[in-house]
Design a protein that fits this description.
Oligomer: single chain
CATH superfamily: P-loop containing nucleotide triphosphate hydrolases
Order of helices and strands: EEEHEEHEHHHHEHEHEEH
Strand order of the largest sheet: 6-7-8-3-9-10
Distance between the termini: 33 Å
Largest sheet: 6 strands, mixed
CATH class: Alpha Beta
Number of strands: 10
Strand content: 25-35%
């Protein structure tokens, strides 16, 4: 569903990702683990089109999107929840959600989001900036789902969120995958969240994938050492 071939991404003369290749299958949840500064956010910003690709190829299903503008990538089925969530603080929960709506069945999509995240239904008239961090993360995921994606990218979704809400988000992502046959790629530093949520785990260091395991085969202690170096 998502195919990255020999990706190269740079900020000016500074190359962050030199030659990265990996694939994510349909309805698969993949976690990309790494310490700060290892290239996770750069990778995700490149995939959504916020940073231009220097070289390589990015395909979404059977469509190449390497040089598409961000809005075209979204229209082809790629959605992105950025680090820090970036919801609209002065708009209501309802207004935030419909800002991402695509197609004519908006109310049906809203009902699905409210079923996944009941707190958003209960707080639909509250301004986004008045929600807790966990509620804002649920809102950001809901808004992304309103674009009807086939692939969802989430950059550090657990940042600043209390442990009980992290477990709710993990459960919701697996429900979303099953309900919508959705492919999900998550960047994270929290190993427990990735272990609970993902089918496969990759570790990124200095812009390269240095390890890849199915979740059931992960040596958690070894991964922790890599993340703490």
């Amino acid at each position: 569903m998502l195919d990255i071939e020999k990706l190269k991404v740079a900020y000016g003369q500074s190359v962050v990702i030199e030659d990265m290749s990996f694939k994510v299958g349909e309805s698969e949840i993949v976690g990309i683990l790494g310490r700060n500064g290892m290239g996770k956010t750069t990778l995700f910003r490149s995939l959504i089109g916020m940073i231009p690709t220097e070289d390589g190829k990015v395909s979404l299903g059977d469509k190449e999107i390497t040089h598409d503008a961000s809005h075209k990538r979204v229209s082809k089925g790629l959605a992105f929840v950025p680090q820090g969530r970036m919801i609209f603080p002065y708009l209501s929960v309802y207004e935030n959600l419909i800002s991402g709506a695509r197609g004519s069945d908006r109310e049906s999509d809203l009902r699905e989001i409210y079923a996944l995240f009941p707190v958003l239904r209960d707080m639909k008239n509250r301004k986004g900036g008045n929600l807790s961090g966990g509620q804002q993360q649920q809102l950001a995921i809901g808004r992304a789902l309103m674009t009807k994606p086939s692939v969802l990218l989430l950059d550090e979704p657990t940042e600043g969120i209390q442990p009980s809400i992290i477990k709710d988000i993990s459960r919701s992502l697996r429900e979303i995958r099953t309900m919508k046959n959705l492919t999900i790629v998550v960047s994270e530093q929290v190993l427990s969240f990735v272990m609970d949520t993902c089918d496969r785990i990759m570790v990124i260091e200095k812009g390269s994938i240095v390890r890849e395991d199915k979740t059931e085969d992960v040596d958690a202690e070894q991964i922790r050492k890599m993340l703490s170096v």
